[in-house]
EXPERA domain-containing protein
Amino acid sequence: MDRTPLSSRPLDKLWFLWFVFSQPLTAVIDGQAIYPRHLVPGFIRSLYLQALEFSKDTLMLGMEKQDPSLFWFKGFICLEVFFQLPLFFVGAYCLYYSTYKRARFTRETGVARREVQCME
């Protein structure tokens, strides 16, 4: 199957850029709501605090203050980091290589091979 270049698919290029730019934002900014604070480097922590100050996001500010009534939101952050973040990589891969049927992924550990349905 011939690969259509990403430059000739403007909508796919837009989605690809969204997937690529969302990866570090999810991992570095949103994920800090669930990461242990002692594992986060100081400069990344300050970036997170600046983002909170700029956006004034009440839910993320509540997570920063460790509000116990936001336990449900912590679950959504866990889903974002452990489910959505890996799918950002899958989506970017599928759009870049124009694999609309199936993309084959091999784990680095060699433990398992799986096929992931992409954009059918």
Remarks:
- DSSP finds four helices and two strands in the chain.
- The chain has one domain: 8-117.
- Helices lie at 10-29, 42-55, 58-64, 71-96.
